[in-house]
Amino acid sequence: MITSAALCLLTLVATAGCLVPIPLAQQFQSDGGTGLVVERAFPPFGTLNAMPRTTPFAFQLYVKSDSPALAGRLCVQVNENCCMLNPPDTTSCQDDATVTQVGDPGSGEYELAFQQYPPCILAPGNVPRVYVVPVVATGGFAPTVGFIGAEGLGTVDATHYWTVNCQLAMTGAGDGKLPSLKPPEER
Fold this sequence. Notes:
The protein has one helix spanning 4-14; strands at 36-42, 47-50, 60-65, 71-77, 91-96, 98-102, 109-113, 129-137, 156-157, 162-166. By secondary structure, the protein is mainly beta. Strands 2, 4, 5, 8, 9 and 10 form a 6-stranded mixed beta sheet that branches. A hairpin with a 6-residue loop joins β6 and β7. The chain is globular, with a radius of gyration of 27 Å.
């Protein structure tokens, strides 16, 4: 006669190596966004020179996406740090893109075109550079009150940027001197 302890031991030995599948939680949460790839930009991502500070640029992106709600927004980081977008404190988001499907219908290829824009005029006159960050989102943008926000919905790409070197503003009425970057007590 087999005791219950022996039967339990026999069952454990017979089923050794057999694992019971346990459902795992999804590791990367998605809020319903769809595919998004930034393929190229015009001008190409990199450094641009704004001489004078009022020089406008026309920025364009070419992306692939299967989202019918694709949207783009142009933001300028004005505190010389790239690229932690924090509107309205250190980031000014200015322009929503005109989104146009290019290529064959159903290809998922889009052009995002922004109006001509002088990014250096947003920065104080003693800031030598700004970062222009296009935020692309497959689900549009979250609503904000009192400012244009950078919080995209769905799949979001805010990893590309242009560095724009800004001509330093002149002090006084044409005295030809560049502003001092030293604190007032050190001048």
